[in-house]
Specification:
This protein is mainly α and about 110 residues long. It has four helices and no strands.
């Protein structure tokens, strides 16, 4: 079971907030440069951005960290529409993992 700490919540919410912006902005890129049909691009880009915001709001619950991890996989999968998202999704996955471990380590040290 994941122990949710305030620092972990803040760091992970920051990652998801920035990710929401990036995946949302991938929508016009998909439409204009990758010739993806607009309804598909909007469903994936904006849908994933909304999912990031929703999960960020639920981070006080342990299940949201699993959901956030799934969001990271979906962001990488968005590379099927915009190939650059493979790279950006991998960066956000690394930030997500780092946010969880750094927050746990820092709060573990400060609680002693």
């Amino acid at each position: 079971m994941i122990t949710v700490t305030p620092g972990m919540r803040r760091l992970c919410a920051s990652v998801l907030g920035m990710e929401a912006i990036v995946v949302g902005l991938s929508t016009p890129v998909a439409i204009n440069t990758q010739d993806v049909e607009p309804p598909v691009a909007v469903a994936v880009g904006v849908g994933l951005a909304v999912l990031c915001v929703l999960v960020a709001g639920l981070l006080k619950h342990p299940f949201a960290y699993v959901a956030g991890s799934i969001v990271q996989v979906l962001a990488i999968a968005a590379g099927l529409l915009v190939p650059t998202m493979y790279f950006l999704g991998a960066i956000f996955l690394a930030l997500w993992i780092t946010a969880i471990f750094v927050a746990r380590r820092v709060e573990g040290v400060t609680s002693r």
